[in-house]
Amino acid sequence: MKQVQLGSQGLVVSAQGLGCMGMSTTYGPSDEQENLSTLARALDLGVTFFDTAEVYGPFANEELLGKAFAGKRDKVVLATKVGFEFTADGKLAMVDGKPVVTGRPAYVRAAVEGSLRRLGTDFIDLLYLHRIDPETPIEETIGALAMLVREGKVRTIGVSEASAATIRKAHAIHPLTAVQTEYSLFERGVECNDVLGTIRELGIGFVSYSPLGRGFLSGELKNLDSLAPTDFRRFDPRFQGDNLQANLRLVDRITEIAASRGAKPSQLAIAWTMNAGTVPIPGTRRVKYLEENIAAADIILTSDELAALDEAAPIGAATGDRYSSAMMETLGH
User: Fold this and answer.
1) CB-based burial, 293-331: b 16+ in 10 Å, e otherwise
2) Which of 4, 57, 152, 165 has the fewest Cβ atoms within 10 Å of its own Cβ atom?
3) Which of these is catalytic: 56, 107, 289, 323?
4) Which of helix, strand or coil describes residue 209?
5) In a domain, 253, yes or no
6) Is 27 labeled as catalytic in the residue annotation?
7) What is the pTM of this model?
8) Number of structural domains, the chain?
């Protein structure tokens, strides 16, 4: 796997990372041994960039990576995220059906200490503010992250799902290495809200999460019958009723383009995000799909293929919001 520089602060990562969230939450039950095997195989194939967060589980995903990479810390680049609040018994804090987002400096510092402990490491390579707290000035939060960098507990920092204006304010306090936001043929909002333009202007890297549209772009999903009862996609607006059928038709068009060059739609989708100059972090729990995803790094899309994909999946093509209304309110601050 090719290694690339993410942003302009010196962090080097594999050109494709691995999103680890689904190993511990959101997509139904998983098997720890299978997860560990997939993480080990990723490392064998040259993936060095692994993405987690304290909220994944909560906490269990960081513990999984700590276990997987014990004794291998020098071989991996660990990215984690803080910024959601938890109750005393370790559950995600909710108010009026919405998760509580916090950027308070004291909370961020305590959260980072917890992440370090669970990951079994003395430092975090890339620490993101998971969501932007509209009640805490971004300058205060980034100031706290900058102090953690000076203390050596964090190497580089970033933000997730932030507006262009917030990215500029944050970067002025301490250079951001990366911005992480959903980006795929299914979700191209960053192309028209000035986020991509801003990070390119400022020399900030871009990490694409959900590059497969939460599984839509795998081409494997035809209905919800195969999903676990606790799989959040059963409640995701894009997977509901008429939205589901419209979005499956979009996938059919991408599948046709992929078939013309003997590739899977998932591989074309990942290659498309890489062609856009981003580092995608597709998630999977299974070695089979991991190997398919990694093979996408070798696909060079032609100008005709790029034009065909742009026609098949233009900006705004997906039907339905990308999150529930409560989660939508946490985006874009």
Assistant:
1) bbbbbebebeeebeebbeebbeeebbbbebbeeebebbb
2) 152
3) 56
4) strand
5) no
6) no
7) 0.97
8) 1
